[in-house]
Design a protein that fits this description.
216 residues; alpha+beta; Lipocalin; 9-stranded antiparallel β-sheet
């Protein structure tokens, strides 16, 4: 069932680019939770309650709705089941972020990833390699996603790289090997390889990490 078919449910879209959840008395736009939108669509009491909940908390980069959906502001993508094997919700992504690109892009697995933790293999198989955001503040974000929904977002802050698994962030390093990139953080090592047929390598135009995640 789409949001358009369930406007009377807890989660609804009262206006373009807005998602409201009566289960948590919160409204969201593409930038995350919004006090003005909560007041506009759910009332002053909901705004007051949300203000108390947000007091002293860091700005969240993802949020979970009462129906189990999960939305990530960095990848501009929502998943219909944030508790289990995540399935991209194109309807929710479209209504919140104004595009279906996130859902379609994340369905293509045109890379190969090998993930090792503490010297033990964790994953070896296909993965999606996507540049998901460019920022005017000098921050570029890249996402590596496995078919089971596991994902790692790398943020390049003018040469300073960090990685997030959606819950925590760590400093990371990147070594360029052409069509292959080697990432290291904490006790993790990720080797990501882009299919040669999907990416013409042109060093004159781009650096290694940008080439690895360059969208077709």
């Amino acid at each position: 069932m789409t949001l358009a078919q369930s406007q009377s449910a807890a989660v609804s879209s009262p206006a373009p680019g807005v998602i409201c959840d009566r289960g948590t008395s919160s409204c969201y736009d593409r930038n995350g939770v919004s006090l003005p939108l909560t007041r506009q669509h759910l009332g002053s009491w909901a705004e007051w309650r949300l203000t108390r909940q947000l007091a002293g908390r860091p700005v969240a980069t993802e949020f979970r709705l009462s129906d189990g959906s999960l939305c990530d502001l960095r990848s501009q993508t929502c998943w219909s089941d944030g508790f289990g094997q995540r399935q991209v919700s194109r309807d929710l992504s479209q209504r919140l972020f104004g595009q279906e690109q996130g859902g379609r892009e994340m369905d293509r697995f045109d890379g190969l990833c090998n993930l090792v933790k503490g010297g033990r293999p964790v994953y070896d198989g296909p993965c999606s390699l996507r540049r998901v955001a460019n920022s005017e503040r000098g921050v570029t974000r890249y996402m590596v996603r496995q078919p089971d929904g596991s994902r790692y977002t790398f943020s390049d802050r003018s040469g300073r790289l960090e990685v997030s698994d959606g819950e925590r962030s760590w400093p990371a390093t990147f070594v360029d090997h052409g069509y292959t990139g080697l990432f290291r953080w904490r006790d993790m090592t990720l080797v990501a390889t882009r299919e040669h047929s999907a990416l013409p390598l042109n060093r004159a135009q781009s650096d290694g990490i940008t080439q690895l995640f360059l969208n077709r």
